[in-house]
């Protein structure tokens, strides 16, 4: 995007600014990130010590290279985003969150911490690119999101039909996961719950974008509806809750006569969710039976994980245990490991996980992020609210948005879509900034 320069006659003209990224290059990079994030192709294991838990390894993925490329392409767009911060408040708040983790990373350096911060930077760059997508670039980005979502759902149904993995090891297909006594599909993600999060958030985002900012034609609606069927194959209660919240908001917002045409996609998504659940009905019945047990059984042992987290936080209150080091810090304290009957794993509450790893210094950034999302939802109404609510159960009941590379990519998409929906129709953040400067562009610098 070029900058305005004022000619002697007072007429503004467009001047190319080499610092600004090419919209086409950025959109292509986003599409590449989304495509590669659909896989878990490992290029290298940076931890050569044998016998270590996989949660302690630092693995270089193909999607990491695409994220690095996106960071390089989009770095010039950060200046534009800051200048028009109202259009990118959610993603800029996520950037502040990443910066707030730096003290913990310096006090507790680790290769996993460095990888986490680089990936989070990539998620921020992804969110900025999604929130800045215009016209042809938006069609490319939304089309890529739709195709990746359809790929996940198609593989998930194939896995369900086969009763297990379908031989896509080259793409990083996950091993078998049994939930509720039944095989749970994971698509091309690392875990069924990651698939559930992707389907809930991406499905809602696609339906919301088609309603507010149409792109990629009917493919967007088809992929958005199909995504909800994928949730039913995962036995994820967070997925079911996120889908229910999102669809409730979208459905209630169609009561006005002018919005009646959007009732069919919402009804189709609800039917797809029911279809997926029906395919795995016995697993869902088994999961529902857990609701009659103890609190620990209902929460799948999450209460013990929270107690471990609070104990870790008390030991390193200000700067935390370091990004990416939660499980390592837990393993170093055998007494805390014994608080849970499960093997060492992150606490399943994303904000608490971030505070334990980054210390209390990250709390202001977390509050800023919450305020930015709430503000965007108030500006955009039902569409952004539905997208936001689709992710909330996974933030409250899981850790995937920070612990898994695919979860970070999804978080970037989530925040970028919320920002995009909160902008006025067909708005360009740069044009908005220029409009606020006056009809003749920014004032001339003194000679």
TrEMBL record:
Q: What keywords were assigned to this record?
A: Membrane, Transmembrane, Transmembrane helix
Stored InterPro entries: O-antigen_ligase-rel_domated, WaaL-like
Taxonomically, which superkingdom? Answer: Bacteria
Q: Which residues form the O-antigen ligase-related domain?
A: 225-362
- Coarsely, its chief localization is membrane
Compartments it resides in: Membrane
Q: How does it sit in the membrane?
A: Multi-pass membrane protein
Give me the segments passing through the membrane.
Answer: 28-46, 58-82, 89-107, 113-133, 140-158, 190-209, 216-232, 238-254, 266-285, 352-373, 380-397
Question: Record's Gene Ontology CC terms?
Answer: membrane
Residue ranges of region Disordered? 1-22, 426-447
* Stored PANTHER family: LIPOPOLYSACCHARIDE BIOSYNTHESIS PROTEIN PA4999-RELATED, TEICHURONIC ACID BIOSYNTHESIS PROTEIN TUAE
Its protein name is O-antigen ligase-related domain-containing protein
């Amino acid at each position: 995007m070029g900058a305005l320069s004022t000619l002697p006659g007072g007429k503004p003209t467009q001047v190319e600014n080499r610092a600004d990224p090419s919209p086409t290059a950025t959109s292509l990079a986003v599409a590449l990130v989304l495509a590669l994030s659909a896989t878990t192709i490992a290029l290298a294991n940076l931890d050569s010590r044998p016998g270590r838990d996989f949660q302690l390894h630092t693995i270089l993925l193909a999607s990491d290279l695409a994220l690095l490329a996106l960071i390089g392409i989009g770095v010039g767009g950060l200046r534009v985003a800051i200048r028009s911060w109202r259009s990118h408040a959610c993603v800029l708040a996520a950037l502040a969150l990443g910066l707030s983790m730096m003290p913990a990373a310096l006090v507790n350096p680790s290769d996993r911490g460095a990888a986490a911060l680089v990936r989070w930077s990539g998620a921020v760059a992804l969110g900025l690119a999604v929130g800045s997508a215009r016209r042809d670039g938006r069609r490319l980005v939304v089309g890529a999101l739709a195709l990746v979502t359809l790929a996940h759902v198609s593989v998930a149904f194939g896995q369900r039909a086969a009763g297990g993995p379908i031989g896509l090891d080259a793409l990083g297909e996950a091993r078998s996961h049994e939930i509720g006594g039944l095989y749970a599909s994971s698509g091309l993600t690392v875990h069924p719950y990651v698939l559930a999060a992707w389907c809930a958030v991406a499905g809602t985002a696609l339906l919301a974008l088609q309603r507010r900012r149409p792109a990629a034609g009917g493919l967007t609606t088809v992929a958005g509806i199909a995504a909800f069927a994928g949730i039913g194959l995962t036995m994820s209660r967070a997925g079911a809750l996120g889908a229910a919240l999102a669809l409730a908001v979208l459905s209630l917002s169609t009561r006005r006569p002018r919005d009646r045409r959007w009732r069919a996609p919402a009804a189709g998504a609800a039917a797809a969710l029911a279809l997926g659940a029906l395919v795995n009905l016995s697993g869902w019945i088994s999961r529902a039976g857990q609701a009659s047990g103890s609190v620990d059984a209902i929460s799948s042992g999450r209460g013990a994980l929270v107690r471990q987290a609070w104990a870790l936080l008390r030991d390193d209150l200000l700067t935390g245990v370091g990004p990416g080091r939660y499980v390592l810090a837990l393993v170093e304290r055998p007494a805390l490991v014994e608080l849970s009957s499960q093997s060492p794993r992150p606490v399943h509450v994303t904000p608490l996980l971030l505070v334990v790893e980054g210390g209390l210094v990250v709390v202001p950034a977390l509050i800023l992020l919450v305020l930015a999302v709430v503000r965007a939802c108030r500006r955009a109404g039902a569409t952004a609210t539905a997208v936001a609510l689709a992710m909330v159960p996974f933030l409250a009941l899981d850790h995937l948005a920070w612990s898994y590379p695919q979860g970070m990519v999804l978080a970037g998409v989530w925040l970028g879509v919320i920002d995009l929906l909160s902008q006025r129709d067909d708005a360009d953040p740069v044009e908005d900034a220029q409009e606020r400067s006056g009809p003749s562009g920014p004032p001339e610098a003194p000679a």
